Structure to design on (218 residues):
């Protein structure tokens, strides 16, 4: 995934365009051999007009970047945010919780996540339902029961900025064969003062595995 802001027409900033060219030369496709590490600095990020996230696919040891494509609301609690790479891979979240992936292979088709109003991260427990792409382009459903534990205060650093956060861990059980004894563990680092999810580690299905996601905003 290339780091590129959402297109805004001819008025897009030169910084966005040049940055996309630099990174596009390094990372052309999601599953090509691992490219040389790309150094993204805070000074570079501050030149961009749109928010960005960094996404690490643990299983592939590949890191990519996505710009915010759009936000919207529906009849369910929470805000939906869709992030897109320059090659049109997308991730969608509700209150920071992963809902869908597109363009990564073996995609997560949808997820019903335990959102509460505008609170980032999961509710204090409840169920999760995953719709996943299986063999022969078929979909299958996983229903899980989840609980949330507050692991306490934790300071994290994202490209030169430190954030005081609360580390919440969501422990889900139910889908046999998807992990260690049918267990999924999602982690969320939420700002202690503001309703911002700065960092998370979330399961995207058995085909993709875990994604590590960082919000690169200041």
């Amino acid at each position: 995934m290339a780091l590129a802001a959402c297109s805004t027409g001819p008025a897009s900033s030169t910084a966005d365009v040049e940055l996309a060219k630099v990174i596009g030369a390094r990372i052309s496709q999601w599953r090509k051999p691992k490219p040389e590490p790309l150094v993204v600095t805070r000074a570079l990020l501050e030149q961009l007009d749109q928010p960005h996230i960094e996404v690490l696919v643990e299983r592939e040891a590949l890191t990519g970047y996505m710009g915010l494509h759009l936000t919207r609301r529906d009849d369910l609690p929470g805000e939906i945010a869709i992030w897109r790479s320059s090659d049109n891979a997308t991730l969608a979240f509700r209150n920071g919780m992963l809902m869908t992936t597109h363009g990564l292979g073996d995609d997560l088709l949808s997820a019903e996540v335990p959102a509460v109003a505008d609170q980032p991260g999961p509710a204090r427990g409840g169920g999760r339902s995953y719709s996943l792409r299986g063999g022969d382009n078929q979909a299958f459903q996983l229903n899980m029961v989840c609980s949330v534990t507050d692991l306490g205060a934790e300071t994290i650093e994202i490209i030169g900025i430190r954030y005081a956060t609360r580390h919440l861990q969501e422990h889900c059980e139910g889908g046999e064969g998807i992990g260690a004894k049918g267990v999924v563990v999602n982690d969320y680092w939420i700002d202690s003062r503001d309703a911002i999810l700065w960092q998370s580690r979330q399961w995207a299905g058995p085909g993709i595995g875990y994604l590590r996601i960082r919000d690169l905003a200041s």
Q: What stands out?
A: The first strand starts at residue 52 and ends at 57. Helices lie at 14-26, 42-45. Residues 77 and 213 are 22 Å apart (CA to CA). Confidence is low (pLDDT under 50) at residues 1-12, 25-29.
